[in-house]
Every structure is written in C-alpha cells, then in structure tokens.
Amino acid sequence: MPAAAPIAGEIVPAAAPAPPVGPARDVAPVGSEPARSATAAPATPAGPEPPRPAVPSGNDVPYLHTELETELGAIRVRLVGVAAGRGAPAYAWLGPDEAAPPASLPLVLGHRGPWRLHVDLGRAPDVLTLVGDTEDCRHTAALFARQLRAAGIGVATVGGVLGGQAPEGCRSLPGLPAAPAPGADPPPPYVVFTAGLAATELAGARRLATDTGGRCVPVVIGPVPAGRWSVQVDPVDGRGSAARPGTAD
Asked: What is the Cα–Cα distance from 201 to 186, expressed in whole angstroms?
C-alpha cells in the first residue's frame, strides 16, 4: 500500500542520520587462526638426512677414519687395509632398515647420524685395538662382546679382561689360543678379548687372525699402540687433528 501523503501544515520529522562507516577490515571466520604477519619468519623445513658415507670401490686401498656415537659415548674409528681373499665386504654403512651383508664376525661399531658402521672383523688385517683408559676400554669391549654373543658369535676372554662384564656364554682362556695345526679342522668363528700384550705376544696375536683365515680375531684393549684397525675410546674433545668424518680414501 502506498504511504499516506502528509497533511498540509503537518511537521514531518527528519530521518535519523546513518551511523558513520569505519574503514573496511578483514574479519577472520570464528575459530580460524590469525593471519601471519608479513614480517614473521617462515617455518624452517627439516634439513635433509646426511648422505651415506663413501666406501672404497674397485682396487682402492681401504682407509676409513671417522667419529661414531655408541650408547657409551663418542669413539673414533680407523680402519686401514683389509685381509685379502676372504670374500665378504670389510665394512658397510647401513640405514636403519637395511640388512647387514654376510660376515663371518659381524659387529656394529657405532652410528653416524642415521647410518651404522657394520664391519666384518674376519676381514681385519690382524688385530682390533681398543685404545684408551683401561676402564673405558673394558666397557666398550663388553658392549662389543654382548653384541657378538647376541649374533651367535663365539667370544672368549684372556683372564679377567672384561671384569664382571663378560656376557653369558663367554669362555675364559688362560692365554691366547694357538693356531690350528696344518690339516686340522678350522675353529668356529670367534673373537678373543685380551689386555695389552708384550711385543712378542702381540706379534703372535697378529698372526692368529692370518693363521686362522680370519676365524679367530683378537681384540686388544687398554693403553696399547693403535693397530691398523683401531677404536679410540677416549672422549672426543676436539683436540688434535680433526678427522674427516665418514671418509674413505
């Protein structure tokens, strides 16, 4: 219906003024997060995993010098040369889900980032030395001995070299074993742990791995000269020359 016309002489009130309109602004929906400030720093994406460290190939002379982490702390590892003619790879860097390659005396020395260093002690050119304070070496040797036993590898100790930390099933020997006589059946693969040796005994220990074809490898621990395969178990404190982590020349 059309609005009634005003009667002559009637005063018509003026329309109320419209409320002032403020500057337009964006209103976020209820429950939404506030918009990021233009000056806010973007989220930093996770960095890529470190690449797999290199290993020797072809006719390269094996050489590895690296720092690793173990459950006992940091260690430094040096592997120089391998025993020839024993087939299996001397060592490999493996990811978390990678199966270990075949090895007669398999041992994981430690980790570098996501990569674990798997070695075959049967490819050691002679002995493995654990160099450092005797007590520190004993703890690391016991860690390695437990790992070997868990893998079904035989472990023997000379005297009380591991103290009360020898794993179950470990044999105690009065001295280093003799190499088998020519034509005798080779021994089952095992590792024998011994404290530091005199020069003549150390020479015999080095021959043991060769004479048994890598089926019996001594691990010599304590304040001893580093062998071609060695683990420095003193804490890594950054002193001295820096290693090239994970490199192989």
From this structure: 22
- Cα angle 151-114-80, degrees, rounded to a multiple of 5: 70
Per-run averaged pLDDT (10 residues), the chain, 249 residues: 50 50 49 47 61 74 89 95 78 94 95 96 95 94 97 95 94 91 87 89 88 93 92 62 40
Q: What does the buried/exposed string (b/e) look like for 63-81 if buried means 16 or more CB atoms within 10 Å of the residue's CB?
A: ebbbbbebeeeebbbbbbe
Beta-sheet pairing, 106-112 with 128-131: unpaired
**C-alpha distances in Å from residue 147, one per residue of 52, 118, 122, 235:** 23, 12, 15, 21
Long-range contacts of 180-184 (CB under 8 A, 24+ apart): 180/211, 180/212
- Is residue 73 within 8 Å of 110, Cβ to Cβ? no
